[in-house]
Amino acid sequence: MPQSTPPAVVVGAGIGGLTTALLLARQGRAVTLLERRTTLEEAGAGIQLSPNASRVLVALGLAPALTRQAVTPDELVVRSLSSGRRLATMPLGETMRARFGAPYWVIHRADLHTLLLDAARGEPNIRMAVGRKVTGVTVDGDKARLAVETAGGASEEREAGLVVGADGIWSSVRPALGDARKPVYRGYAAWRATIPAGEAPEEMAGNITGLWLGRGMHLVHYPVSRGRLINIVLVARAEGSVSEWNSKAHEADVARHLARAVPALSALADRSLDWRVWSLFDLPPPRPWGLGPVTLLGDAAHPVLPFLAQGGALAIEDAAVLADTLAGEPNDVPAALRAYEAARQPRAVHVQQAARENGRVYHMAAPLSLMRNLVMSRLSGEAMLARYAWLYGWEPPQRRDARLSAA
Questions:
Q1: Between 3.40.50.700, 3.50.50.60, 3.40.220.10, 3.40.50.970, what CATH number should domain 8-72+102-182+282-363+393-406 receive?
Q2: For the residues 340-351, what does the mean pLDDT come to?
Q3: Which residues are part of the catalytic machinery?
């Protein structure tokens, strides 16, 4: 990389931003990570790393650290929330790895964030600046100038030859590029908590991912923290949205929703768990979603509902494609960014639409739910897995093409 090239700036040190910074630094680019928070901690409990995401992290050399921290569930078990009846199973574990060439991991978000952060701190090409909020972006040919406000209220200006807005659903980079749209509240909220594995009800025990389907709601659980904790996420219809991510939940709301569940689940509302709540938004990606040497990534570009557990995975996919397109056009950053955006647009839209459809199916009321349950009960685990091959089988196009050429 020429010494005269202005540094790359990645805005946001979450999972997508850290993955992007690592991939760019491995190409020899100098990267500055700007993070508005002064403490680099990840909110939330669990995240699912399906093969389309885990293969990127494995290629980054993070497999040993992830293997130590993550859990590989044996199977997905789908049940009725109201009756507890088992509706379907889908193999995970070694079946998933054998079919798609990469593991299906579940991990505590803080653990994933920490290992990415440790890797970034070990990269000489990455510099981190915390307590920095981007307040404006000006594009001048092949360079961009960022107006930055520090946590202490001072103003800074930074120049970069590449800017990646990875600053989440409420991105400050996106409106600075002229997209005045706001994320759309979709009428759902998610409540999450963790429970020690030894204290979990029998119905939630074991090395599985559990999915419970009910009218207007569903519940997901899986082990995290090397199996010591069970991550629980309840998603249900909610009038109005909460203003902050990871807000303290009202226990009465959790109890009201779980009252319709089997006793083992409804009893969770009686426990002293630290329930947190956030509202669910998405937003169709603009076309293109960048300008000049500036682009967006992850939720800043295409926030997605969690009904496919693909928000973090999409951000990791974005990072891989962005790095590949930049490697292919090292001397024309704007062209590389437009190629990246064009490549990612159809995939992002597909996942967004599939997530919305999954939400509709998960939350069906009778009689449609009876038909859904009948269809699911007649599907083999392999048939269920085949339905998601388009999702889990994804790999970075340039690496896929190289693999096919070698074959």
A1: 3.50.50.60
A2: 97
A3: 222
